[in-house]
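Translate structure to sequence.
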C-alpha cells in the first residue's frame, strides 16, 4: 500500500524535499499531493487531520503523522543512510516538534515560496495524486 505525503506545494524547500524523496524511493512507495490542492484537502478531511496543519503530513493506512514524526517516518523508508535518523525518535515528540516548528515557521524566509503549486514533471506525474 502506498504511503501518501501531503506537502506545502508553494514552499520551495518542501518541493525540493519531494524531489529528494522521489530519488531515494525508486520502488514508488510514496505518492504525493499538495496541501493546497483539492485532493490534498480531501485527504485531510477524510482522515480528520486538524485544519491548523500547514506543512507535512504522512498518511499510512488509517493513521496520519505530522511534523517531526512524519519526517522521521519518511526517512525510515528511504534508501541509504537516512534510516539512521530514526535514532531521533527517542527524543520526546514535543522537543522534536519545537525544532520542526522553528524550521517550518521560517521556511519561506529561508528558501522562498512560489505563487502557485508547481506541476510535477512527466517522469514523475504518476506519483502525484490529482
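Result:
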Amino acid at each position: 500500500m502506498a504511503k501518501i505525503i501531503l506537502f506545502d506545494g508553494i514552499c520551495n524547500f518542501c518541493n525540493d524535499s519531494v524531489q529528494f524523496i522521489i530519488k531515494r524511493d525508486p520502488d514508488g512507495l510514496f505518492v504525493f499531493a499538495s496541501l493546497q490542492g483539492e485532493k490534498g484537502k480531501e485527504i485531510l478531511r477524510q482522515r480528520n487531520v486538524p485544519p491548523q496543519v500547514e506543512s507535512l503530513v504522512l498518511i499510512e493506512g488509517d493513521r496520519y503523522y505530522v511534523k517531526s514524526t512524519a519526517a522521521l517516518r519518511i526517512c525510515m523508508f528511504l534508501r541509504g543512510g537516512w534510516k539512521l535518523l530514526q535514532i531521533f525518535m527517542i527524543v520526546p515528540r514535543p522537543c522534536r516538534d519545537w525544532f520542526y516548528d522553528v524550521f517550518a515557521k521560517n521556511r519561506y524566509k529561508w528558501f522562498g515560496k512560489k505563487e502557485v503549486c508547481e506541476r510535477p514533471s512527466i517522469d514523475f506525474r504518476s506519483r502525484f495524486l490529482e
